[in-house]
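User: Show me a protein chain along with its predicted structure.
Assistant: Here is one chain, sequence first, then structure tokens.
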Amino acid sequence: MTEPTDADNDLAQTSRRRFLHGGVAIGGTALAGGLVGRGDALAAEGDNLPPNVPEWMRVPGDPMGSQPYGTPSPFEKNVVKNISKNLPQYLSASGRTPLQDLDGIITPNGLFYERHHGGVPTIDPAQHRLMLHGLVDRPMVFTMDDIRRFPSQSRIHFLECSGNPVYKKPYGKTASDLVGLLSCAEWTGVSLKLVLQEAGLQPGAKWVVAEGADAAALTRSIPIEKCLDDAMLVYSQNGERLRPQQGYPLRLLLPGFEGNMNVKWLRRLHVTAEPAYSREETSKYTDLMPDGSAREFTFYMEAKSIITRPSGGQRLAAKGFHEITGIAWSGHGKIRQVDVSVDGGENWQQAQLQEPILTRALTRFRLPWHWDGSPAVIQSRAIDETGYVQPTLAELLAVRGDNSFYHNNAIWPWHVAADGEVTNAANA
């Protein structure tokens, strides 16, 4: 390729200015406020802009096979799990999904939130076994090959930690800080009902106690009704085998139930007449009420939503048209409606729900917004198919008090300053 001369470069710069100014002229009126006057600024940014031939077109790219497992663009290197530097990440650890950086409803496997209590075990699937015993006619031990011989199914569902976020003032800068212990995936596995039927349930079988193969031997009790409904034994996530952090080679999936109950590294199912009252369902994952009583076995994650763009840590570049978008979800079924307010909850507008709208899965919502440049408080509220409406934090605290730690599904407002900076309005 012949190197361009100085005259060629001058001509290209002149052509680019004409091209950019022309592009502004034909731009839609909704975007004009953000584009007018940018032509000269863009022209000064470098020689890779139109109509020049950018540098990446002048040489061949990386050949196929240089990275056998695909990786994101190096320009997306900051889109990673949000791991707190203020909490010790040893045995009991967590990593949050960067919700504000994602589109759609599916969470990539590498960004799926983590929460574990005894570290992540390295398990050889050839040596892993699932024991099924208790109130069954035929106690059984399954290999992974045995599990995969059952008819498979794939379904899209969210998972959420019930401590997402804590009560009282929901501190946090970004959407990830607030509700990043939430992700959604397509799960592949087998129906738990089918496996239980293979063993034969006996009269009196009311609970199934699930145990994980991690160092904590995390144990949770699941009501038999859920086990015979939509519960799954899953071995794949978003088309590939589970990652170790997500329970490889086998985990329990209980759509709509709090994340802790979806036991990872599943090794044992004990069918019983009573719950186990394990550590994770007595001293943990219970809610102390204002009258001194405690809510236990709350199970379901209630309707919730959050705006992810614009949201904390982001900045609006200019006045004019912006799209407000976010996600909504409910453990009780499908999202029926999402309302958005741009004036701190004084008035609400119904947002558009993006297909697909699935049961117990994330649903994305969108609302066009013309920002006039003045300070604003934006927020969303979800309504699920049962008619339940996502409450404000004040409404939630009035019912449950501030001793509780789990199942905070309150509305989270964002403050948009006159300079476009977006912050957590609850921290104001």
